[in-house]
Amino acid sequence: MEYIKTSFETTYEVIDSVIRTVGAGSMEGRKYSASVQMTSTNLYEKANDKTGILDEKIEEVTFKIPCEDDQIAGLLARKLKENRKNGVVITLKGTLPNQNGQIIVTTQPNELLGMPVKRVDKKQV
User: Fold this and answer.
1) Short-list 58, 71, 56, CA closest to 113
2) With 0-12 CB in 10 A as exposed, 13-18 as middle and 19+ as buried, what is 3?
3) pTM above 0.85, yes or no
4) What's the whole-number mean pLDDT along residues 69-98?
5) DSSP E strands: which ranges in the chain?
């Protein structure tokens, strides 16, 4: 997805999340790119008028960070996990959540890595 015009941006601060990678591939003939997905939850209470108690509710969103390839996704996931371990709050720009609670991150992976990404030729490894 590429925006033609942007009139607003939404900034998120991710304090904690479950981090996983998704390799590039295809499903039912549709290709998809590699990505890092960060799932975060907020717990809140909402009054239940019928029972007279505060029920606990979970609000869940998944931040999807599209990556150029599987290697970049791996590097980014490693960096994000390191930041999480060190208590770093991760600031991301992205879309509003869709009906499935997914937010497409518009912050580029290189920005999140904090450096230009140097590719490693797999033949050299």
Assistant:
1) 71
2) exposed
3) no
4) 93
5) 10-14, 18-22, 25-27, 30-32, 35-48, 53-66, 90-94, 102-104
